[in-house]
Amino acid sequence: VLDRADTARRLAALEDLFSATPTGRNFFEGFHTQRIYAVYAKTRAFDDLAVHPLLLSALDHALGEHYQFSAPVALQIGPGEKAQVLHRDEDVYPLPRPHDPVVVNSMWALCDFTADNGSTRLVPGSHRWPEDRRPDESETVTVTMPAGSVLIYLGGLWHGGGANTTDRPRPGLLLEYVVSWLRAQETQLIAVPPDVARTLPPRLQELLG
Asked: Cα dihedral sign for 94, 104, 206, 10?
């Protein structure tokens, strides 16, 4: 979706933020992984990606007309990080299954995602599984993709970050959306100051709430 020069410029905008961001606090966040929360309060480098026509088309298709940001996060899986536990993003909501999609995620690759540097692992078709079925690592598929690519997947899909066995971090941008009748994981009305929000494009303001 993005060419390499564009991707590199966007990654450079995160350099100072990553340098000031500690690693995760638990095994789920990753003890060698940095996560920049409230991205849209801190940088303007990704405003257009939030409302990219390709992504919005997928969101309209999966979630319908009304949705919002849930958790826009820039993250960097560092060398030595272990594979993240497989999980479903929509499990933060205690909804009985089956139900229509309520969460959609997009992962923007800010470098080449490989099997060695922590690329996302997915369990294809698992969003259709019954509630009591749990995945096995043997069922995962590693998503390899060049810098500038975007991966879009439903929040009901079992997935997790991969292990980074290289000597370089794996940066990415995670833009998570949720239907408007559920509470977002991050409260953007508090995270993004009003004086910042009023300068943003109207569609982005709407997604922030």
From this structure: positive
**Can you give the pTM of this predicted structure?**
0.95
1: its two tokens: 């979706």
- CB under 8 Å to 185, separation ≥6 — which residues? 70, 71, 92, 176, 178
Question: Which residue is associated with the tokens 């095994």?
Answer: 27
Determine the distance from the C-alpha atom of residue 34 to the mean position of all C-alpha atoms in its chain, rounded to a whole number. 13
Inform me whether the pLDDT recorded for 176 exceeds 90. Answer: yes
111-158 residue pLDDT tens: 999 999 999 999 999 999 998 899 999 999 999 999 999 999 999 999
Question: Helix, strand, coil % (nearest 5) of the chain?
Answer: 25, 25, 50
CA distance 116 to 191: 34
pLDDT the model gives residue 26: 86
- 171 forms beta bridges with 76
CB count within 10 Å of CB 112 equals: 16
SS3 60: helix
Residue owning tokens 């996060």: 73
